[in-house]
Amino acid sequence: MDEAAKSRLVASIAGSLGAVTRQDIIDRAVNHFRQADADYGERVHNAVRAVQARIKGEEVTIQVGKPAHAESRS
Q1: Which end of the chain is more exposed for a tag (fewer CB within 10 A), N or C?
Q2: What is the pLDDT of residues 20-29, one digit of tens each?
Q3: CB of 66 within 8 A of CB of 13?
Q4: d(CA 47, CA 74)
Q5: Mean pLDDT, the chain, as a whole number?
Q6: How far apart are CA 61 and CA 26, in angstroms?
Q7: Inter-residue contact 51 to 19 (CB < 8 Å)
């Protein structure tokens, strides 16, 4: 999966999870994503937090994907 597809997937999952009202359900789901892949789980976690902040009316900026320069160093 390329980086753009990963970012779309994270954004899609976060959009759905961010609307869940029970934090324990969100935490459990994010934990499953982290168990599958630590970076994936962290990206979902950060994106969910951003969605929740937007729902609450807070202004927040996050980076869902890896910085472009990080890939060129690999």
Answers
A1: C
A2: 999 999 999 9
A3: no
A4: 24
A5: 84
A6: 20
A7: yes
